[in-house]
Amino acid sequence: MSDRIIKFGLVGIGSIGQHHVNYLRSMDHVALVGVCDTDKEKADATAKVCGARAYYDAIDLLDQAELDVVIIAVPHYDHPAIAIEAFKRGIHVLCEKPIAVHVNAAKAMIQAYEAAKGQKPDLQFAIMFQERTLPFYAKLKEIMESGALGKLTRATWIHTKWFRSQAYYDSGGWRATWAGEGGGILTNQCPHTLDMYQWLFGLPDLISGHAHIGKYHDIEVEDEVTAYFEHASGMVGHLIVTTAELPGTNRMEIVGDLGKLILENNKLLYYKYPQSMLAFSQETDQRFAEWDIAPEEIAVDTNVPNGHHVVTERLVQRLLGQQVDLIAEGPEGLGSLTLANGIMLSSFQKRPVTVPIDGNAFQAELEERIRTSNYVKKAVQAPAANPDMSASFGTTK
Hints:
Elements: E1 6-11, H1 15-24, E2 30-36, H2 40-50, E3 53-55, H3 58-64, E4 69-72, H4 79-88, E5 92-95, H5 103-117, E6 125-127, H6 135-146, E7 152-159, H7 166-169, H8 191-201, E8 206-213, E9 222-230, E10 236-242, E11 250-256, E12 259-264, E13 267-272, H9 277-283, E14 296-297, H10 308-319, H11 333-349, E15 353-354, H12 359-372
Parallel strand pairs: 1-2, 1-4, 2-3, 4-5, 5-6, 7-10
Antiparallel strand pairs: 7-11, 8-9, 8-15, 9-10, 11-12, 12-13, 13-14
């Protein structure tokens, strides 16, 4: 393997930014040469620990640190602006989720990337969808691509393992506000869930969303959502998410013409049908029927490497000249954002919306809520200096 060292910069040293710092320091062929945060004390302290230079403005980092790659881990609204400036300078980008707050900004970001590749064809843009590396989700993807279930008819996902307390929402002045975060559970906790849905099933043609604003918390954004999707294939999808339930549930049911999968509590069950379900319905002379099927538990290797560092390692491997696929190409971030914006636009307008969604309509709705907001944020409660992020990372349990 090449002896080349890939020079990384990091913008944003909040909780997730610190997580990036921790694993980057142990990676081969990587040097973290610059860290940036508007909090000078935080930037200085992090730089001292990891032997990097501290910056307090993202443009200074991009201009002065001689970077190969920049990791963007700042509040969501700032993702596109920093990425676009990096692309202009020929710097590879690894962006935290979501790609942006609204699809118009995401499209501008992707257009800037495509334009920059005209000058630097090997320019890379990755997005941090580390849940694609989780063993059970990776197995689901494998099964979906095999076509073993036949024609898909339904996918239902109850994912309420996103508990967040009021203390969590009070821990940052930008959190759970239209102006600071651009949304609630769909923007912050569920980009991975939404990405996983579209990764497995593709985007629907029609979205019907029902979002409840501050139902369980003192916030001005959504903390409970139910969505219904219609796909061109005829498959329907359901998504139920909230940050209020404790203990929460993470249960996915995928029903096809030839079988059914149920994923819950780190157990993947496969119900293999004796014949086509849809053909049986048309051909049987029975008015009522029931198949007594014993499910097979699908073996999943849970020891495979997974998580944030795998996404970054794959990018590093590509930059070192290896022919590997990224875990998620940056432009793929538009899919999950389309679902998030589409659900909220449907809820705002109290009607189903078609995909591709009207980005201008969603942006107008968002800007109107920012303009008319009279929400007063409580005094911010400072989080621990190095909070344990493990409880916030995706799990199939």
